[in-house]
Design goal:
With 143 residues, the protein is an alpha/beta fold. It is 52% helix and 21% strand.
Length: 143
Amino acid sequence: MGISFAFQTTCSLKNRTVLKKWIKTIIENNNKELGEISYIFCSDEQLLEINKEFLNHDYYTDIITFDYSETDVVSGDLFISIDRIKDNAKILNIPYKEELHRVIIHGILHLLGNKDKTESESKKMRLLEDECLSVLFSFLNEK
């Protein structure tokens, strides 16, 4: 059981130990157990191919989450486009790291059963992301 990070594109991911602690804490705070979670950081083109092949979607996205969870054990593969993260951060005028962390936890929130297809679900998802980011912020500021 654990969390792994794989890189198919140039990407810097600092504080990996803190990120793992954060993700595990969010899962446990939702009364679930950590299974196997793999983050795969890739390019727009790589994620577009995955989107086409597995979801029949022909558009760019920031994350695709494959959920392998069973009962109360959270597991999955999360493919994240670093290109999308960079572009979205610029569009939203927020730091790249903040957008990266938001997308990292967005995938976990999906694995925990949260949806974002409707406007109401999207608003709830954004609130949950903000709550999770505040937990990460407190971890990063621990002495």
